[in-house]
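Q: What does the assembled structure look like for these inputs?
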Amino acid sequence: MIKNIICLGTAFFITSCAFNHEKQIQILTTKKVVDITKQGSKVCDNFILTESEITLYFQTAEQVSNEEAHGESIIMPCKYSGELTMNKETYSYEVFAGGTGYIYDDKGWVLKNFICKNNNCCSSFSNLC
Amino acid sequence: MTTVTNGIIVDKRITAKRYNSIEHGNINNVTSIVLHRTAGSSATSSPNGYAAGQKTGAHFLIANGGTIYQTASLEKLCWHVGILYSRCADEKSCDPKELKTVNSLLHQKGFSFSKRVKNVSRHELGKTYPLRYPSNNDSLGIEVVGRFNKATNIFERPTNEQFKSLKLLVDILLKEFSLTLNKDVYAHGVIARKKKAEGIQLLQYLKIGVAP
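A:
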């Protein structure tokens, strides 16, 4: 029993360390934005994220490099956008229905890229994965 | 004098720096050119990714100073396009049956958003160019270094050197593959599910000859 608990704890620790997530995030504002000029914008009716879900997204989605995000991102015509605090600093963010997310600095440059593709994120957000 | 030998452009203005990791099989017929932005701030980050085994990438990379690197053979296909939009849906030219198919794929229940658009893209690949947008199988990709800015909602303005190099390179490719600028050169953000602004400034420069 104790051996099992230790194994499970170790597995959880390794899984937690395997991907780079953001833990210290608090969502300040959020707004759903739909680009009706792009194809498939009607699917956005079913794209709904609460503030706590956006927080969970950034806590579970995999942080990737600019190049990886550029290659793998799927940009749908709908996103949640707003401001958040991370390590006590304020930034803006976007989370797209295709599972791609960004955190931007105060000048609008990408600071961090995220993609929902690992088990943690996919099990929480099956529609973003 | 510019020549092409074994898929590599031989021209003193173009530096061959080929990465096997981004080459995936042979291109049978080049029908088009897709203009990309790297999303990174320097020309080192993309090749670093390629060298580390990254599988996505394009045939060319234009650095901030205008240096053109050929990073893959013209005879090889690269994974640079991503998830295609339905061209006929964009251009409002689908017949009713085709439009119904595209819409049913987009709204298919039980699938994630990304899975649904991937299914539309896969459906598009069953068509021939130019009935669909360019795909990895029949297009060359040109990456121009530059980051996206959320405040302006566009990519940073390419340098004048990048614009000039892009024109030089596109002119070589148009001639080599008998393509036309107005019909066969595309901004990535228009044809695939990427940032809408990707490649727009580049195409605008090529078409009107003025840097935006």
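Helices of chain B lie at 45-51, 87-90, 96-106, 113-125, 160-177, 181-184, 188-191, 200-208.
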